[in-house]
Task: inverse folding
């Protein structure tokens, strides 16, 4: 890899893959009679190992979000295999939040869903509110938040349980510049601790932070 602009060298990936995607295919049927078929994925393969920050790129509509939803289990695949080990965190492209609940109540709800002990939950919440600089919104309901702050909460909830594998679908859409920079620093710190991270990205200005990049083109993966 060429000049890294002073960023620390990514550690060599360690351990067995926490995510392996092999030959995954997915089609959708459209139209009133559902006669028209779109083949979105036609045998896509990739893998992510602990301590890797892997980029997933591709044009709009190339199937990045569909692939992530298949990995998470929100969509069924038509063919191929998905292997996953360890805990999972997923930050969807469209924030999935409850309008009437406050930021703090979201943390409580997710802490319970993840089965976190009280101390761990409080620690994670404080750390993330601080890292993403939105502590002052703790008592705000989601309906009162700006788009960027909703995205911060969406991201924080995906990683509050320190998952082994973190899937991020354009988590920084709507972030201001400073938050965008913080986001990459946060991802880097977690990767250094051994988290495996797959991040959908269009902007490869942060290319030097990525250990690997997979590009979806015509339903298949082209690796750099
Ligand atoms: N539930 C669905 N039903 C039918 N077609 C779908 C569905 N979800 C996605 N598609 C189609 O699958 C293709 C890939 O969509 P996807 O959302 O994965 O693209 P993407 O690579 O994430 O694009 P973007 O960069 O715009 O987020 C698109 O043609 C889309 O219309
Ligand atoms: Mg998408």
Result:
């Amino acid at each position: 890899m060429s000049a890294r602009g002073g960023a620390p060298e990514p550690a060599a990936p360690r351990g067995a893959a926490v995510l392996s995607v092999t030959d995954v295919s997915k089609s959708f049927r459209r139209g009133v009679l559902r006669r028209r078929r779109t083949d979105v994925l036609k045998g896509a393969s990739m893998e992510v190992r602990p301590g890797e920050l892997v980029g997933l790129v591709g044009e709009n509509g190339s199937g990045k979000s569909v692939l992530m939803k298949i990995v998470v289990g929100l969509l069924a695949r038509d063919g191929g295999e998905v292997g996953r080990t360890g805990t999972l965190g997923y930050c969807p492209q469209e924030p999935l939040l409850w309008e009437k609940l406050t930021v703090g109540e979201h943390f409580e709800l997710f802490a319970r869903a993840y089965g976190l002990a009280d101390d761990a939950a409080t620690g994670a919440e404080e750390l993330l509110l601080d890292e993403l600089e939105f502590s002052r919104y703790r008592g705000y309901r989601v309906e009162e938040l700006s788009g960027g702050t909703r995205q911060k909460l969406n991201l924080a909830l995906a990683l509050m349980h320190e998952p082994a594998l973190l899937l991020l679908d354009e988590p920084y859409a709507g972030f201001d510049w400073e938050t965008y920079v913080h986001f990459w620093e946060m991802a880097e710190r977690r990767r250094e601790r051994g988290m495996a991270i797959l991040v959908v990205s269009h902007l490869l200005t942060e290319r030097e932070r990525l250990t690997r990049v997979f590009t979806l083109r015509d339903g298949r993966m082209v690796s750099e």
Observations:
- Residues 177-192 form the longest helix (16 residues).
- The pocket of magnesium ion (ligand 2) is lined by residues 64-65, 93, 169 (CB under 6 Å).
- Residues 21 and 82 are 5 Å apart (CA to CA).
- Confidence is low (pLDDT under 50) at residues 1-7.
